Amino acid sequence: MTTSVRTTPIPRVTAVTRGIFGSAVFVVLLEAAVRTGLIGSASLPLPSEVLARTAEMLFEPDVWADVLATMKSWGLGLLVAGVIGVGLGMALGSWRLLARLSRGPVELLRPLPAVAIAPLLLSLLGRGVVSRSLAVAYAALWPILFNTIYGMRSVDPVAKETARSFGLDSFGVLTRVTIPTMSPFVFTGVRVASAIALIVAVSVEFLLPGGEDRGLGGIVVEAQAAGDLLTMYATVVIAGLLGLVTNAVLVAIERRVFGWRRGLAQ
Amino acid sequence: MTAVAPPSATPASESWWGRAAVWVLPILVMVVVWHFITTGLDSIFFPTPAAIWEVLRLDYFSGPASQLFLGDVVFDDLLPSLWRFALGWGFAVVSGILWGLLFGLRPGWRAWVEPLLEFGRAIPPPLVLGIVFVTFGAGDLPKAALIAFGAVWPVLFNTIDGVMSVSEVRIASGRTFGWGRRERIMRIIVPDAGSSIFAGVRVSLGIGLILMVLTEFVGATNGLGYTIIRAQRGFDFAAMWAALVVLAVVGLVLNSLLVLLEARLLGWRATSARGLDG
Prior knowledge:
The complex is a heterodimer.
Chain A: H1 12-35, H2 47-57, H3 61-94, H4 96-101, H5 103-109, H6 118-125, H7 129-153, H8 157-165, H9 170-205, H10 215-226, H11 229-258
Helix pairs in contact in A: 2-11, 3-7, 3-9, 3-10, 6-7, 7-9, 8-9, 9-10, 9-11, 10-11
Chain B: H1 16-41, H2 49-60, H3 72-105, H4 107-122, H5 129-136, H6 140-164, H7 168-176, H8 181-218, H9 224-233, H10 237-266
Helix pairs in contact in B: 2-10, 3-4, 3-6, 3-8, 5-6, 6-8, 7-8, 8-9, 8-10, 9-10
């Protein structure tokens, strides 16, 4: 009997064990390869050194101030995108004519990479959190907007009629039927947007001159100027851990609040 | 994923011209509104459409016949940008789909590297820029490598998801046709996972463009991102807006090509054509 085209998923415990073992082997092999000079040279630090530097940086208050600065423009940008995206999405989801007319402008504005407008925003509004969050919001807007529209469209017209026949006014239909149906879609939009928002939040920091709230991108800029590879690798590790935690939290909220009712990833 | 198929918003009777008009007219209205706002504002940050067009005409469309009438900026900045993007993004799409197929078909193998993949996906790619530039320099290949690093994750994970969610019945039905492993993969699994793969490819397109611009902000002497930074330093905001228009058009064209490709390859399985009104 040959193995099937697609094998069945393995038990959770086996998967976790393999994952831990696999990662450990990877790190140890990399350490050995760098130590014996098999790969790399001065430009590839030892994994153990990177981990040590990571641990060291986690106790530096400046690093946390930078993490906070990045999270601030990330969070504010997401919030602005959420407000505009949901508002606009509900309008476009309600009036088909409006949706048709905005198709051209939206399809033209959407693919414009958000970092490209960052220099304009920085020239216009200064290097503060406002310009940074607006660049983030531009990138985060589209997944939220589109998921909100799909959410509005997925509301069952029969459910709306039923609610009306039970004597609910249009506000009641909105809060009892429309919003519960569309919210999982909106949340999926926010989750997808949050990853892109982080990319833009960090990207914009490469354009800033040094300073206090330079963010994670600022740490890399400074380390790059100093040729400090160890700090650059450690920053990547810290950001990766942060990303894992953020994503886990968002997924957990999504599972807990919405259960099986998931939106469309877009 | 709930695949709701809403009725098409565009009436079947509507002509091609009608649909094009609905698309183009609002953009024209946008340009006219922009004209009146910018004329009223008279700010160096917000040039009029005419001023932006003047830059576009001079920089992009006024070359000699030997350059097909395309301006120097097309050759010095636009094409180098597109070349690096194509290199990095193309590598990301191909390798993302291949590894995604392997890991989707073999969950047991994927388990060994799953935490490493999750970690790689969680890293904001711009932060890797410093490492790439210090280690490999700021040439075309390192830039493409960074684009590839950022763009590969959505393709990889969406391919895995797509392969995992192909129904067992569909795969088994391939056996009744007497299809071998390769045929079942190419004729059942890949097409059924197709719309998920394409969704990942579209997300990776957006990330790739962001990284293309970023690498040119930081370490380039040419490219569209570089023209934006150069314009900012020279307070030449008409040139900056011209570069933004070009970037938007590049993104629009690439995205439209993807939608067309998906419709052609997947037929009824395609979902991307659903825009705002679909």
